[in-house]
Description:
Layout: H1 2-15, E1 19-20, E2 29-37, E3 42-45, H2 48-53, E4 66-72, E5 142-143, E6 150-151, E7 153-154, E8 157-158, E9 168-173, E10 178-183, E11 236-242, E12 247-253, E13 268-272, E14 282-286, E15 289-290, E16 296-300, E17 303-304, E18 310-314, E19 317-318, E20 324-328, E21 331-332, E22 338-342, E23 345-346, E24 352-356, E25 359-360, E26 366-370, E27 373-374, E28 380-384, E29 387-388, E30 394-398, E31 401-402
Parallel strand pairs: 12-13, 13-14, 14-16, 15-17, 16-18, 17-19, 18-20, 19-21, 20-22, 21-23, 22-24, 23-25, 24-26, 25-27, 26-28, 27-29, 28-30, 29-31
Antiparallel strand pairs: 1-4, 2-3, 2-4, 5-6, 7-8, 9-10, 11-12
Amino acid sequence: MNRRIAGLERRVLLAAGLTVAVATQAAAQTVIDLCYVEKTGVIYRIDPDDVLDGNLPAECVKPGKHFRLTLVDVEGEHGKLMGLGDPAHHPYAFLIDGSRALTGDLLAGGNKLTGLAAATGAGDAVRHEQAVLDADAAGGDLGGAYPDPTVVALRGKAISGTAPSDGQVLTWDAASQSWTPTAAPGGGASDHGSLTGLMDDDHGLYLLVNGVRTATDGFAVTGTTGSGNIPTSGFGTRLMWYPNKAAFRAGYVNGSQWDDGNIGRSSVALGNNSTASGDWSMAMGSQTTASGEGATASGSRSTASARGSTAMGSETQATGLASTAIGSAAVASGSGATALGHLTKALGDGAFAAGIQAEARGYASTAIGSGTLAEQNASVAMGFNVKAGGATSLATGDRTIASGT
């Protein structure tokens, strides 16, 4: 209740042109007595004589209803008011220490802010002499005045006053010492293939089509087995890695030897017209063929057509399973047969022929020498022009014949 009365008495007194102050101020003082009527909210002054005589109105007799105020006459001077140093009494005024921020736009009403310090960082207000003003002269590579300067130079070099036409570019003209509009070299290029200097070694990270590139850590070309198409087909000289079949080719072919249908999985073919059509096969040399699975053919016109067969030399043929033919025109047609030398033949399974024109026809037969013949199973012919014609027979020496068992 006392707070309510205090608020009411302050409003009443202020409305009357009076100011509440502490009674100890060195100024003229006037003492008045007031009475507050709670029912109506009215405050009115009590006659001083009634106060002196003790004749207070009935509504002012109750405690809290009658109170006395001391009024100080400050003669209308603002500086004599108390509480002027409390910022809370002036919520709409700037503080001289700059601690009160604006909560809205500041309208200067056409007036100026003066005495600003020079701006030194982001967010600082800029003084007049620090700002670019209308009609200020442009400098550096710009000419004219703001707000519409023009570019008159590039990196301090003058730009020609000639206006460019469609498709022209600025190029440096040493004669006039200026950037001058000229047609783009070659009319310009929008396609990489139309650029000049493509054959120059400008890309140190790429392998060269022609020439040598030093690689510190080598290089790798990866792919996915069973995925993708063959890079190229037909005749020609090339180095080719075919990820789909994990196959490798290097050399020259005059036809379809390195087309997809003649490439075995994980196969290798090197040289001239070599064919490795068997899976995991290898063909090296000239016109060699490794068509068997896991077969190897090397030399010239050698053929390894059976699984696991090997043909090495000139015109050798290994046609039997796991057979071996090495030399010149050697033939190993039996399974597990071996023919070594010139014109030797190992025709029987497990047969062995070595020398010149040695021939082992029987199963597990052996012919060694020149012109020898092991005709029957398990027969052996060793020497010169000898013949073992009977099963398990043995013929050795010069022109001997063993016809029995």
